[in-house]
Write a structure and sequence with these properties.
single chain, alpha+beta, globular, five-stranded mixed sheet, 158 residues
Length: 158
């Protein structure tokens, strides 16, 4: 099969790659570009472990073809930190022990960031609803919700 040349922006940087027509964005990110934060948990868009932002829309990268990234702006968990300074969500996930095995964490962080960009002061119910597409088998979600609440307060300057 002939490869498809794709020009896109990932985490603010112009990126070009060649992928196969049937190759998912998740596989391109992990295997071609070395951005291994997004994980394959299910391959069917049900677990959220592969969540990224595509043109400011929360997206399961296992359901998008790499070729569909052409001309799009993609944000992965690798783009959250500014150099060595962690994003408040990342730092507060650590402080609140909101991660254990780490499989779901990158997708949850991206989903939480997407939520807080749309709603900087979400209720607990809104946080749980906003993260409902992300499955976690380890934490039981309470620590995740508390970390997102703390990050929301900090990001609002409250």
């Amino acid at each position: 099969m002939a490869g498809i040349h794709v020009t896109t922006t990932i985490n603010g940087d112009a990126v070009e790659f060649v992928c196969q027509p049937d190759e998912t964005l998740l596989d391109v990110l992990r295997n071609r570009l070395g951005l291994t934060g997004a994980k394959e948990g299910c391959g069917t868009g049900d677990c959220g472990a592969c969540s990224v932002m595509v043109d400011d829309r929360l997206t399961c990268s296992c359901l998008v073809l790499g070729a569909e990234a052409e001309g799009r702006a993609i944000e992965t968990v690798e783009g959250l930190a500014q150099g060595t300074e962690l994003h408040p969500l990342q730092r507060l996930f650590i402080e609140h022990a909101a991660l254990q095995c780490g499989i779901c964490t990158p997708g949850v962080l991206i989903a939480a960031k997407a939520l807080l960009e749309k709603n900087p002061d979400p209720s607990e119910e809104e946080i749980r609803f906003g993260l409902a597409g992300n499955l976690c088998r380890c934490t039981g979600y309470d620590k995740i919700v508390r970390a997102v609440q703390a990050a929301a307060r900090e990001m609002r300057g409250a």
